[in-house]
Write a structure and sequence with these properties.
By secondary structure, this protein is an all-alpha fold. It has helices spanning 2-11, 20-34, 41-49. It has one domain (2-54).
């Protein structure tokens, strides 16, 4: 889903995976990017944090 990818790339900051406040920004972007889809934020964030292209 390109909308979600764009939201993450536009929101993430340097070292966001190690900073809880920066993680919250990305979580908010994920919620907005997925819109009306039903999802578990924890599961989606696990996938996002494991993607090396979001480092």
């Amino acid at each position: 889903m390109t909308r979600l990818d764009t939201a993450i790339r536009d929101t993430k900051k340097a070292d966001w995976k190690r900073n809880r406040f920066k993680q919250c920004d990305v979580e908010h972007a994920v919620r907005e990017g997925l819109g009306d889809y039903q999802f578990e934020l924890k599961d989606v964030m696990e996938l996002v944090t494991n993607q090396c292209e979001y480092d």
